[in-house]
Amino acid sequence: MELLSIAAVLLGFLAALLGAGVWIAVALMATGWAGMQFVGGGIPAGSVLATTVWGSSASWSLAALPLFIWMGEILFRTRLSEEMFRGFAPWLNWLPGRLMHVNVLACGVFGSVSGSSAATCATVAKIALPELKKRGYDEDLSLGSLAGAGTLGILIPPSITMVVYAVQANVSIIQVFLAGFLPGLLVMVLYSGYIAIWSLANPKRTPPADPPMSLRKKIAESLNLLPCLLLIAFVFLSLLMGWATATECAAWGVLGSLAIAWWQGALSWEAFWASVMGATRVNCMILLILAGASYMGTSMAYTGIPLALATWVNSLQLSSYSLIAALTVMYIVLGTALDGISMIVLTTAIVIPMVKHAGFDLVWFGIFLVLVVEMAEVSPPVGFNLFVLQTMSGKDSNTVAKAALPFFFLLVLAVAIITVFPDIVMVLPRMAFPG
Question: Which runs of consecutive H residues, i.e. helices, occur in 136-225?
């Protein structure tokens, strides 16, 4: 009961800071520092802050983040944004919602090479938001679909979150990667389905369809996408074939983006410097928030709140489906205060035995865990994708969170579907590893 009270106090303190307009990263660090005051043993909060911030920042894997953001900044300053929509428009014209589906498709493509939810959300949002606004699409649906689809960066392999889980649970990384493909496709279908239904229900808030085109003209328009698609295919193939790591692939992506900009005649010194400064601003914002979230996660670990919550769930002796429902609620609650990797690291030690005892496959549970981490990415008050979109759109946090809410519930639906039909997750790993 004492830990529950501490958790409530800390959550209220964080909400008050954010509501007062304090910088997100500063609010997270302040909450982490406040949490350390409840820890006994004389552990110095300042020393923990220093080591945690350095440890969360000095990561080779994180080097992919600024590179992918820079890649998006470069492509944003070419004609890619216009050509992407020109290329997709003829094929999506018949579908309710039309170009809004580009958010889902583009996030799925970028997610397959970035492995980062924040990088995927930031890269696609930089390109999509201005173009959709210019064409008159509903801004709330644009923000919500980007917040939701941006989470595909950690669901569609390769994914840093999947690697962390596989190491913690001692399961095959390749099997977890393979298990993520079909659930990723399922989530994309759910997102596009919602966009189509919303558009049918709100026809006055959807721009009119473009004039019909012949097949030949459709193909001609789609050829504008060829440079970008070749770049993404090259990056993805390099990763899939093991020619380069995710960070190295991101570096190749930047070089390819520069080549495309040069080929289009858009690579001026002014555009180059603007892309560098734009990437620097976005990356500093993301890394500072990540450092604050890491410190807050460490503080939570010292207080013992995540472990106590998992232990309480275990003590209930629930049935299999009830256990999954309880774990979903538990991780949604944790997601309001912790980043995804911290949630995995802090809880798997006690949750994995519970899941094995209930008869769930650990590879399947890894995908379940990634889906609930995706929920955390779009859950206020500390949903990471919400922060990214809030900064890039200039909207307040309440507007972005409200726009993302339907996509949060679609992720809950996805969890329910893979729980009832686990073969959606397990069919590819079983085909690749029949033993």
Answer: 139-150, 152-155, 160-169, 173-201, 215-222
